[in-house]
Design brief:
Blueprint lengths: L1 H9 L14 H12 L10 E6 L2 H10 L5 H4 L2 E8 L4 H15 L7 H11 L4 H25 L3 E5 L4 H8 L6 E10 L17 H4 L4
Helix pairs in contact: 2-7, 3-8, 5-6
Length: 210
């Protein structure tokens, strides 16, 4: 745990990446697995994770992300896109996955499926979208922690215009919406932000024990 806390103090939202340094395939695979294993409400994972490697696409996305240089300079660009619809098939596919993975009859999961459907399917559409978007933040948390362990920098971003990114990537046609952006790579030695002390609330100010 001491290493974990040390790495949390090491990480920060990198403002300038070294464009010459690339994440290895092995480390990228580890980060993808960390995202895949993230916690999610009901276990549904109602989102897709898009890794944008095409430099032309990244150049198109940059203006939609307030012109931030990390979009084009980082080793990798990741889009967390929440599903805009939660339907019966969303839950049915998940139940099928449980049945296959755990080698149990799908019929034995009918009660759980019906419970999820009763809680999710009747929600207003805007509420569903807020809920699916929140799930992407859980996945981002796993990415941030895993990357810090590997000494890989991650800059999480909410500074972008979702509609523009959706249009560039054709996400609307896929029933997806850009919820979060994360750029991954290695900090540039000229990024002075890395030398700043981390500013957080003290434990006394942050926590309330009842």
């Amino acid at each position: 745990m001491s290493t974990f806390i040390e790495n949390q103090n090491w990480r920060y939202a990198t403002k300038k990446f070294d464009a010459t340094k690339k994440i290895s395939k092995q480390d990228l695979s580890t980060l993808k697995e960390a995202i895949r294993l993230s916690s999610s409400s009901y276990g549904l994972q109602p989102y897709k994770v898009i890794i944008v490697e095409n430099p032309e696409l990244r150049a198109k996305i940059q203006p939609a992300a307030w012109g931030q240089s990390q979009i084009v300079d980082a080793s990798h660009l990741i889009i967390f896109a929440n599903e805009t619809q939660v339907e019966e098939k969303t839950i049915d596919n998940y139940i099928s996955n449980i049945s296959t993975t755990r080698n149990i009859p799908a019929d034995s999961l009918t009660g759980y499926a019906d419970f999820m459907k009763s809680k999710l399917l009747n929600l207003p559409e805007d509420t569903k979208q807020v809920w699916t978007s929140k799930q992407t933040y859980l996945a981002l948390g796993n990415l941030l922690n895993a990357a810090a362990e590997l000494k890989i920098d991650v800059t999480p971003m909410e500074g972008f215009v979702p509609e523009q990114v959706n249009e560039i990537l054709g996400l609307d046609k896929l029933g997806l919406n850009t919820s979060l952006i994360a750029t991954l790579g290695y900090r540039h030695e000229e990024d002075t932000t890395q030398h700043y002390k981390k500013v957080r609330k003290s434990q006394e100010e942050l926590f309330i024990t009842l």
